[in-house]
Amino acid sequence: MTNLKTDAAYELFEGLIRGSRPHLSRAISYVENGAPGAAELLSHAYKARKGAMLTGVTGSPGVGKSTLVDGIVSELRKAGHTVGVIAVDPSSPFTGGAILGDRVRMRQGHSLDQGVFFRSLATRGHLGGLSRHTGDVVALLDAFGFDHIVIETVGAGQSEVDIMRYAHTVVVALAPGLGDDMQAIKAGILEIGDVFCVNKADLPGAERTRRDIEMMLAMREPGGWTPPVVSSVAVAGKGLEGLVGEVLRHQTYLVSSGLLRERNRGSSTAVLEEYLHLLTVGKVMESASRDGSLDAALDDLVEGKSGPMEMAERLLRRYRE
């Protein structure tokens, strides 16, 4: 190691694979902030992944995703598994950071548990219910050595299907009284869910919501995995053992059927696309902003002198030249 940038990345990487939680926290911040050497650190981390199982939890706002995640963590810990949690939060319009923090999200019982690590990530304007750095943080947690990684989406409603590209198992959380059966149809939720959980099952209408989801699932093409529908009252700890049991059953199915590799390829595709987007769109916009052509292009668009496709082609051509 010959320069400071390499030394810093190497120190963080060596610390996190030794199991140092402070090094892991610093490494995530290092990557989120795009510090010098972040790409080098990630290169080491991606090569050192140990094969953690990835569970995504998604659903509309108000269904109790955070409480469900907390319960899933508790059940996995009872079974002796270590767990890393990524909670994607809305961004602060002032600082760009996550509005909700880990101490708000986690029960006091997990805060001192060395087998659990929790990190909030800000969306920073990224669509799809996830942060642009989700795949990178998964790689860091995996290299650290967690058995399971749980990803909770931001709760943006109908835009959260990106989670299916990262997680091995997607848990779709629903709740009675929120119109979630219709939301499921509109959002394509039926296509992304591997396990469905009707949370707040002690509320009126819970059984009807469950039946509606089961009826819609029955209309899918037969074959392969049949998504189960479980009920829970996460705030009271009810139904969580059954939920985690179904998650683990699905992950066993992925391994035995050979589909786990396919899911891993999908996750790698999502990360690769993020970086290709960053290296193309980001650099074109940066160059256009620097030489003033972006301002000119925006003026033409606002004044109706050209269309967005024409302008995009012009900026791309200018960048290439």
What does this protein look like?
It contains 15 helices and seven strands. The radius of gyration is 21 Å and the shape is globular. It has helices spanning 4-17, 21-32, 38-47, 65-78, 102-105, 108-111, 134-144, 163-166, 180-187, 189-192, 206-217, 240-257, 259-291, 293-302, 308-320; strands spanning 53-59, 83-89, 116-122, 148-152, 169-174, 195-198, 229-231. α1 packs across α2 (21-32) and α4 (65-78) packs across α12 (240-257). The longest helix is centred in the last third of the chain and has 33 residues, at 259-291. β6, α11 and β7 (229-231) form a beta-alpha-beta unit. It has three domains: 1-48, no CATH class; 50-257, P-loop containing nucleotide triphosphate hydrolases (Rossmann fold); 270-320, no CATH class. It has a seven-stranded parallel β-sheet with strand order 3-2-4-1-5-6-7, sandwiched between helices. It has 321 residues and is of the alpha/beta class.
What's the name of the CATH homologous superfamily of the largest domain?
P-loop containing nucleotide triphosphate hydrolases
Strand content: 5-15%
Q: Whole-number average pLDDT?
A: 83
Whole-number count of domains: 3
Could you tell me the number of beta strands?
A: 7
Q: Which H/E pattern describes the elements?
A: HHHEHEHHEHEHEHHEHEHHHH
CATH architecture of the largest domain, by name, is 3-Layer(aba) Sandwich
User: Can you tell me the overall shape?
Assistant: globular
Class by alpha and beta content: alpha/beta
Count, helices: 15
